[in-house]
Amino acid sequence: MTSPPPPPGPTTRASAVQESLTRPRAVDGTVLDKRVAMVDLIDADSFRDLLSSFSDLYRVGIKVFDDAGNRMVDVRVGNSALCGYLWEFGGTRQACTKLVTGLKNDAFAARDGLPQPHIVDCFTGLRYVVVPLVYEGDAMGRLILGPYLPADRPGLAEQLYSIDSRVERQRAELLLERVRRAPEDVIGKVLTQLGRVIDVVLHTSMRQLLTSQLHIMSVTTSYHELEERARQLREQNEKLQELDKMKSNFLATVSHELRTPLTSVIGYSEMLLEGIAGNLVGEQRDFVQTIKEKGASLLALITQLLDASRAESGNLSLQIVEFDPTPVLAGATTSIVPQCAKKKIELTVDLAPGLPVLKGDRDKVGNIVVNLLGNAMKFTPQGGRITLSAQRWSGPRPPRGNDCQALFGVPAEDFVRIVVQDTGIGIPADKVGRVFERFYQVDDSSTREFGGTGLGLAIVKSFVDAHRGEVFVESVVGEGSRFTVLLPV
Ligand code: ADP
């Protein structure tokens, strides 16, 4: 078999193909390092359509296989009847199978490192041109053009009839008429055109693939960065929580240790006042009285700190009993009666008769009211008014933040509603949402007029929460505040 010089084919821009075929590639490197298969690169349907139109135009069959041997395009023109006829006989079928296997798999000879197209003559005398598809040094697959009958051949090859004697000459020659007869220069032109088109398709597809892959890479990188930041934040948050816990434990321990000696100081000053160690005279009595009073307020402060740290660490223990709230509420007012008299504040107590029995911690409920009354007292100027009222109340709980339940209607419940209202200084609208936070004070300046720790309302809130209740405040600066507590019956 003599082969004419190979026609020009779509091997343009190939460089160092052998090297590219053997070069080890990063499996998870950047997209630029990765080897791309033709099936992943181009849209198979449009590629097939494109090559079909080529095939229609020049009336020559075109096949394309990717690098792994997968058939991507198979357009047949004119030869089907002849090939189908020859497939009927064992000898020609065998020869045909061998030829097709070679077309698909035979390696390309290389010249100057570039794979070269080659010509394959079929045992029938028809001819194929097999062209390597190379892009940027990467072997992408092969294109097979044919079969066609070279223009200088008179007809089918004589050897065909010796391969299988059953092949009828007349019939075979008749079927040959449907096969394209083409001079080599026409085939050369077809290949040049095809080469350009495939190059453009590969180039455009590669650009699109790179753009999208780079986009995915940048998104993935940002995602990893965000993940890393989230991890750092989580770590810092855990550290802060640990520190917060240490601080609470410290507070709880110190407060507890301070209470014991302080109780003795108060106890001994009470004994001195009662004259157990002999009668006190003049200023002695006043001084001991002051020691007792200051000791008591220090004890109240320490108790507050202890309550707050217990509530925070979830160690709040409740002594649950069933109790009538009326005497508890009335008892709480006694804590502010003397100061009311001193500041000429009018105290009104309006407790509805027959309040329902509550199940909860009697002391803590008392504490809630004492705290609210204490604040009302503290923040109401001379001549003001404080009202403590309580009644049975049925209704829905107030919605919290973006509580979705509010959209569907909150079910009504039975509560004892306790309201502490004053005509004091009020709380600015932008601060009112924070007063239940620990250590929060509207006036936190060192020159502030009112004493306190900023813990009272936080304790109130934790006690109310422990009773599954609600507490909220409405306030107008200069007019007064109204704290409402709902305790479920
Ligand atoms: P404090 O020990 O400062 O009273 P609280 O937790 O009891 O701490 O209250 C927090 C802050 O809420 C107070 O410092 C004050 O600014 C504001 N506040 C509480 N109750 C009233 C009230 N009845 N009238 C005006 N402001 C109030």
Q: Which percent range describes the beta-strand content?
A: 15-25%
Secondary-structure element series: HHHEEHHEEEEEHHEHHEHHEEHEHEHEE
Mean pLDDT, to the nearest integer, reads 86
Number of strands: 15
Bound molecules: adenosine-5'-diphosphate
Number of helices: 14
Query: What is the radius of gyration?
Result: 48 Å
SSE-based structural type: alpha+beta
Global shape: rod-shaped
Number of separate domains = 2
Percent range of helical residues:
40-55%
Unreliable spans: 1-29
Q: Biggest β-sheet: count, sense, barrel?
A: 6 strands, mixed
Query: How far apart are the first and last residues' alpha carbons, in Å?
Result: 106 Å
Blueprint of the fold:
Elements: H1 17-22, H2 38-41, H3 44-58, E1 62-66, E2 71-75, H4 80-86, H5 90-105, E3 110-111, E4 114-115, E5 118-121, E6 127-135, E7 138-150, H6 159-163, H7 169-176, E8 181-182, H8 184-273, H9 282-312, E9 320-323, H10 325-333, H11 337-343, E10 346-351, E11 358-361, H12 362-379, E12 385-396, H13 405-408, E13 412-422, H14 456-466, E14 470-476, E15 480-488
Parallel strand pairs: 7-8, 10-12
Antiparallel strand pairs: 1-2, 1-7, 3-4, 5-6, 6-7, 9-11, 12-13, 13-15, 14-15
Helix pairs in contact: 8-9, 9-14, 10-12, 12-14
Bound molecules: adenosine-5'-diphosphate (ADP).
What does this protein look like?
With 489 residues, the chain is of the alpha+beta class. It folds into 2 domains: 10-219, no CATH class; 318-488, 2-Layer Sandwich (Heat Shock Protein 90). Helix content is 47%, strand content 19%. The protein contains 14 helices and 15 strands. It has helices at residues 17-22, 38-41, 44-58, 80-86, 90-105, 159-163, 169-176, 184-273, 282-312, 325-333, 337-343, 362-379, 405-408, 456-466; strands at 62-66, 71-75, 110-111, 114-115, 118-121, 127-135, 138-150, 181-182, 320-323, 346-351, 358-361, 385-396, 412-422, 470-476, 480-488. Strands 1, 2, 5, 6, 7 and 8 form a 6-stranded mixed β-sheet that branches. β3 and β4 (114-115) form a beta hairpin. The longest helix is centred in the middle third of the chain and has 90 residues, at 184-273. The protein is rod-shaped, with a radius of gyration of 48 Å. The chain binds adenosine-5'-diphosphate (ADP). Adenosine-5'-diphosphate binds next to α12 and α14.
